[in-house]
């Protein structure tokens, strides 16, 4: 029984991280040459949603690995993994649909304002509540996805505002999101990070040309 559970855990981890790695490869290939900073066009609905789901798998699954493993331990079955991952990504897919509905190419002022709002959001009770539940047992991938959205939505909207097709910003935001999922909250780290995001937003508003990749080169 123990060996079977260990095997299921190892397989679940391999599937989760393998899918994330494959998604990174696909996302990078699709996004190469498409980044126009704040002037980025989202493309067709089908293209954007497909790329968005790939991006979410790449960015979110590494941080979701502990939750996936907890589900395997609870059920003792590897077949719980696909349902958990699909239901988890379905929540982020709905977010992507909403983003597509409201997204428009914009200016540096809007990008800076969203970055400031993302930094302020890091201090809110909703952010702290959602982040805490990301590290606890959940009943389903859908429930975990809701908590994950509550925890990471500020950073994700900052990505959309700064360059929704930017590989660089995608990588930076992915590292922050994974770190926040895996590491316990620490004011000594979290507060300077939030202030840095706010500072970035202010810099974008008043000196947008100092932020590489924010505006397309002429």
What would the keywords be for this entry?
218 residues; mainly alpha
**Number of contiguous helices:** 8
Residue ranges: pLDDT <50 for 5 or more in a row? none
Topology, number of strands:
0
Query: Mind summarizing the main beta sheet?
Result: none
> What would you call the shape?
globular
Mean pLDDT: 92
Distance between the termini: 63 Å
Strand content: under 5%
Helix content: over 70%
Could you spell the SSE succession in H and E letters? HHHHHHHH
Query: Helix/strand-derived class?
Result: mainly alpha
Computed CA radius of gyration, to the nearest angstrom = 18 Å
Report on this model:
The chain has 218 residues and is mainly α. The protein contains eight helices and no strands. Helix 1 (2-31) packs antiparallel against helix 2 (45-75), helix 2 (45-75) runs antiparallel to helix 3 and helix 5 (125-134) crosses helix 6. The chain is globular, with a radius of gyration of 18 Å. It starts with a helix and ends in a 12-residue tail after the last helix. The model has no long low-confidence stretch (mean pLDDT 92).
């Amino acid at each position: 029984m123990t060996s079977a559970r260990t095997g299921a855990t190892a397989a679940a981890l391999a599937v989760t991280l393998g899918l994330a790695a494959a998604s990174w490869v696909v996302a990078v290939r699709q996004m190469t040459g498409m980044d126009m900073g704040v002037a980025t066009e989202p493309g067709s609905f089908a293209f954007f949603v497909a790329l968005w789901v790939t991006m979410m798998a790449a960015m979110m699954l590494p941080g979701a690995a502990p939750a996936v493993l907890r589900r395997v331990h609870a059920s003792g079955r590897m077949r719980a993994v696909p349902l958990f991952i699909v239901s988890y990504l379905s929540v982020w897919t709905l977010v992507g649909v909403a983003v597509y509905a409201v997204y428009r190419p914009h200016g540096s002022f809007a990008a800076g304002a969203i970055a400031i709002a993302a930094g302020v959001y890091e201090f809110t009770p909703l952010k702290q509540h959602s982040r805490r539940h990301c590290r606890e047992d959940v009943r389903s991938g859908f429930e975990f996805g809701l908590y994950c959205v509550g925890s990471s939505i500020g950073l994700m909207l900052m990505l959309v505002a700064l360059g929704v097709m930017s590989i660089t910003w995608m990588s930076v935001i992915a590292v922050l999101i994974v770190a926040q999922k895996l590491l316990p909250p620490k004011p000594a780290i979290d507060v300077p990070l939030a202030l840095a995001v706010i500072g970035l937003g202010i810099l974008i508003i008043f000196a947008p040309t100092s932020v590489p990749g924010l505006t397309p080169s002429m």
